[in-house]
Design goal:
Order of helices and strands: HEEEEEHEHEHEHE
Largest sheet: 7 strands, parallel
Radius of gyration: 17 Å
Structural class: alpha/beta
Number of helices: 5
Distance between the termini: 38 Å
Number of strands: 9
Strand order of the largest sheet: 1-3-5-6-7-8-9
Strand content: 15-25%
CATH architecture: Alpha-Beta Horseshoe
Helix content: 25-40%
Number of domains: 1
CATH topology: Leucine-rich repeat, LRR (right-handed beta-alpha superhelix)
Length: 196
């Protein structure tokens, strides 16, 4: 099955007219499909929806120039790769990101997002909608949400859903961490929704 996916992506990567791509590894949700290198050369993509995939861009990857919408559900991606991908997708308007996506080796990695708050060159200028689901009191994801809000001057709606199986105690921790002010908001018209 993996070899078939790889061949299809190789074929599509040679076509300039591919604008929307959905890869749903539903047949084998226990194993993440590692996206092959040709996937990262598809510069015409405007919309990507990935499910049960492993997102490991090659070192030569410089983002997707035309990407406007991205959805990651159960996608394995490192914090570094995610930050590089997002900061090199300049037209990104809509982002849906599940909490289970990011697999971090330790808590120290999440602190890199805190450091990025002071980086004036990092902005998500076109991002208008951001949605994520948090499944635990995950410090990384909370810091990532704060980074997105702080670096998105056009952000209109940010929706953070807390998964149903999270305990009431964890819900309170998550809400306090997200609502705990002060943290910068780049957009004066931001509407923040927290779904419990």
């Amino acid at each position: 099955m993996v070899a078939e996916f790889d061949l299809i992506i190789l074929y599509l990567s040679r076509r300039t007219y591919v604008k929307d791509l959905i890869i749903d590894n539903v047949n084998d949700s226990s194993n993440f499909y590692k996206l092959p290198t040709p996937f990262f050369s598809m510069q015409g993509l405007e919309s990507i929806c990935l499910k049960n995939c492993n997102f490991e861009p090659p070192v030569t990857f410089n983002g997707f120039n035309k990407l406007r919408s991205v959805s990651f559900e159960k996608v394995q991606v490192s914090a570094k790769a995610l930050q590089h991908f997002l900061s090199n997708s300049p037209l990104l308007e809509d982002m849906y990101l599940m909490d289970d996506n990011v697999k971090l080796p330790n808590q120290a990695t999440s602190m890199k997002f805190v450091d990025l708050l002071d980086d004036s060159s990092l902005t998500f200028d076109h991002l208008k909608h951001f949605e994520t689901a948090i499944s635990s009191d995950n410090g990384f994801m909370i810091e990532f949400v704060k980074l997105i809000i702080a670096k998105s001057p056009m952000l209109e709606i940010a929706r953070i859903d807390v998964n149903d199986y999270v305990s009431v105690e964890e819900e309170l921790k998550i809400c306090k961490a997200i609502i705990n002010l002060p943290f910068p908001h780049a957009s004066p018209s931001l509407k923040l929704f927290i779904g419990l």
